[in-house]
Specification:
Blueprint: E1 11-16, E2 21-26, E3 34-41, E4 44-53, E5 58-63, E6 67-72
Antiparallel strand pairs: 1-6, 2-5, 3-4, 3-6
Length: 82
C-alpha cells in the first residue's frame, strides 16, 4: 500500500492596488493542483471565484483593480447572505 502525502496548506494574498492586471505566481509546490480563490474589491466582499489551476508550480490569473485576491488550499467557508 502506498501513501500519498497530503496536500500542504498554502495561502497567498495578492494585492492589486491600482489597475486591473494579470499575474503569474511561481514556486507553488508540485503536489498542489488547484487553489481556491476569493476576491475582495469595490462592491465585492469575500466573493468566491472559480478555483485556479496550478500547472508546473505556476498559476496565472487576472486581478481586478484595487483588489485583494486570496489563493488557498483550505476549504472556503460558506457565507450567509445578510
Amino acid at each position: 500500500m502506498t501513501t500519498r502525502s497530503p496536500t500542504p496548506v498554502l495561502t497567498l494574498h495578492v494585492l492589486s492596488p491600482k489597475g486591473a492586471r494579470s499575474a503569474r505566481i511561481s514556486g507553488i509546490p508540485q503536489n498542489i493542483a488547484v487553489l481556491n480563490r476569493v476576491c475582495t474589491a469595490q462592491g465585492r466582499h469575500f466573493e468566491h471565484q472559480a478555483p485556479a489551476a496550478v500547472k508546473d508550480g505556476r498559476v496565472e490569473l487576472q486581478l481586478l483593480a484595487q483588489s485583494l485576491t486570496t489563493l488557498t488550499t483550505l476549504q472556503l467557508p460558506k457565507l450567509r447572505e445578510p
